[in-house]
TrEMBL record:
Keywords: Amino-acid biosynthesis, Aromatic amino acid biosynthesis, Lyase, Metal-binding, NAD. It holds the Pfam family DHQS_C. This is 3-dehydroquinate synthase. GO terms for biological process: amino acid biosynthetic process; aromatic amino acid family biosynthetic process.
Length: 285
């Protein structure tokens, strides 16, 4: 270890409920107590909550210091570690406070996935599948052939899936860093789940039924839910959608599939009745 480099650490609680201003202050407290200056580097070692908060702290401390991501879950390795979105939640909604702040580098070690709970593995694979659906049909075909290897945590399959996902994400971010249009397509499924977005696309007549079946099949093999929890009501969906970051001028814009596999649109121009019908078909009340 370089004797000229001092290392200070802050161990933060993990989980969405801790992704708030109180927890963020612990990072600032440590940085200020340690008299860190603008030449310091914040390193995020952990999952998505840690990366988002550490990144936002780096963007804000002394108006911006160096930042390195070392993500330890599939979700962060394929998605949030690349692209510079950082932030915290507000009690009224997720990720409503934050900044676009790019890391100097992202270091991914797939060995960190050996201890990842199955639920977290599946959660990350949902994002991998997303890339195939919105922009990379060839990658989706590869996933269909290799989903069993991914579920078995085959290191070669995981490495390829992570690499290809990062390439897709980086390409989109380089074209639209601040999410004015194209980058928003990466949010497929973030408003009401992959299955519901695909179902709505089909009900609008925008995609072929074969795509719906293929998506349903791969999600089941990945042990991902194909319906919302029974406790979710239509009103609950609508209240959450009202504060979605994709709302503009009071209009909820959605990412929906359109055309052959690997194509999507980010639009507010859709039949509202079809949105209601989709919600009704998935919710009991």
């Amino acid at each position: 270890m370089n004797p000229n480099v001092s290392v200070e650490s802050v161990i933060l609680p993990d989980g969405e409920k801790y992704k708030n201003m109180d927890t963020l202050m612990k990072v600032f407290d440590k940085a200020i107590e340690s008299r860190l200056d603008r030449r310091c580097t914040f390193v995020a070692l952990g999952g998505g909550v840690i990366g988002d908060m550490c990144g936002y702290a780096a963007a804000s401390f002394l108006r911006g210091v160096n930042f390195i991501q070392i993500p330890t879950t599939v979700m962060v390795q394929v998605d949030s570690s690349v692209g510079g979105k950082t932030g915290i939640n507000h009690r009224l909604g997720k990720n409503l406070i934050g900044a676009f702040y790019q890391p100097q580098c992202v270091l991914i070690d797939t060995d960190t996935l050996n201890t990842l709970p199955d639920r977290e593995l599946a959660s990350g694979l949902a994002e991998v599948i997303k890339y195939g659906l919105i922009r990379d049909a060839e990658f989706f075909q590869w996933q269909e052939k290799n989903i069993k290897s991914l579920m078995a945590r085959d290191p070669h399959a995981l490495a390829y899936a992570i690499k290809r996902s990062c390439e897709n994400k980086a390409e989109v971010v380089s074209l639209d860093e601040k999410e004015s249009g194209l980058r928003a397509t990466l949010n497929l499924g973030h408003t009401f789940g992959h299955v519901m977005a695909v179902a709505m696309s089909y009900h609008l007549g925008w995609i072929d039924e074969s795509i719906v079946k293929r998506v349903d099949n791969i999600l089941q093999q990945a042990k991902l839910p194909t319906a919302p929890p029974e406790t979710m009501t239509i009103e609950m969906f609508k209240s959450v959608m009202a504060v979605d970051k994709k709302v503009a001028d009071g209009l909820l814009r959605l990412i929906l599939l359109k055309g052959p596999l690997g194509n999507c649109v980010f639009t507010g121009d859709y039949d509202r009745n079809v949105l209601d019908e989709t919600l009704y078909s998935f919710c009991k009340s």
